[in-house]
Amino acid sequence: MESRADEKLRWGIVGTGGISQQITADFSLVGNADVVAVASRHASSADEFADAFGIPTRFDDYSKMLDSDIDAVYIGTPHVTHFELARAALERGRHVLCEKPIGLNAAEVRELAAIASESGAFLMEAMWMKFNPLYARLHQVVDAGAIGEIRSVRSSFGAPFPQDDSSRWKPGGSALLDQGIYPVTLSHMFLGEPSNITATGVIREDAVDLSQNYTLNYSGGRFAHGASSMVEFLDQSASLSGTGGWITIDTGFWFASRLTVHRFSVEKGETTETIETTREGNGYVPMLRAVTASILNGDVEHPLHTMDETARVFDTLDEIRRQITPNGKAWS
User: Which residues lie across from 332 on neighbouring strands?
Assistant: First the structure.
């Protein structure tokens, strides 16, 4: 696609919940992005959101927003709606940044990727963890051999969310897709696709999965342990362990600003090095800046989180889901 690097990208926001509020606030820190429209199912919500953030155009009809004077959409609605909303935008040639999870299964992810490829539009799941400055430093430390060969990854994300009327607790709700996607993505980032998976979990009769734990196995005895839950607390830190030491990432590992490199030798015992980074805004600014620049440059995806890698993560999520579901089926 033709480069527009000297222009501003016109964004439309889909959904007016908490995540859309944080994203819109962070867009104000991205110099080459303008949020020019917002869409909600309810006109009053769209008006309130638009007034709060100084957005000139508001819609209670998503289709009309797609036909308006915008370049790209950020989708921040409940995840059961992501596939249809992203598909509608791509079919109109609009660029799409969609809150995770971008779909309910790997088949949906690959279908969206195919539609994006045909339309020539940019498409990415909003996996902000990969754009976190701490993870740039983490890759540098690992690539420099600070802990030798990575042999295992450990991560989890669990919290007892209030059992309210939110989409989390309705059919389609999923601790695995909402929280577990972070541990699985972290494992893929540093170990790749697993050779086999073992998983157990708790799932309701209406197919809402509440919790799960899983081991991803790799060649040569390497492994990743992960867990996710929306009914109990789980340690929200993470670690990478290698032949020469280990790295711990602070609580809230997917948005953390500090990690510690641990090394051990007989002569010195354990030695540590702490690395800290600074968060911009709510933490989404680096991702929003990178995506906006990619679109203006004419790119159709960002190398830090391609649709192929997204689909491979969903292959792992699908297999975990299959194993914890009584009838052995993944999402449909």
Answer: none
